[in-house]
Amino acid sequence: MSQQKPVEYVSATPEVKAVFDDIKATRGVPDVNNFWKYIAQHPPTLARTWGSLKDIMADGALDPLVKELIYIAVSVTNNCGYCVASHTAGARRAGMTDEMFGELLAVVGMANETNRLAVGYRVPVDPAFE
């Protein structure tokens, strides 16, 4: 259980409210989720993290669904249950199906297994891959 308390909008500083307002407007949601409320305890971290996430997750060479799928994969590997839940919801909003989710988790599991085998066996990189 966290020892910290979330920063709610009503008690937030103007600096935090500005970031919360941008999150709500950008995402079209009535409130920010717990991640933002907890990191708002340190307003510079809140602003920096939101700015970076907003830029990185925007449509670009990779579409938003692909970015959400990557985020899920990394979050599963890093064992961040919060991020898995949050970005699974985001991926579903972006069009992820149950079949896609199943395949994603199969790839994540296989990559983790083969990565560990390659590390354990200290397999050198093939010259063709350089």
Automatic annotation (TrEMBL):
InterPro entries reported for this sequence: AhpD-like, AhpD_core, CMD-like
This protein's name: Alkylhydroperoxidase
Molecular function as annotated in GO: peroxiredoxin activity
Organism (species): Pandoraea oxalativorans
Coiled-coil segments: none
Domain Carboxymuconolactone decarboxylase-like span(s) in chain numbering: 46-118
Domain of life: Bacteria
One of the Pfam families matching this protein, by short name: CMD
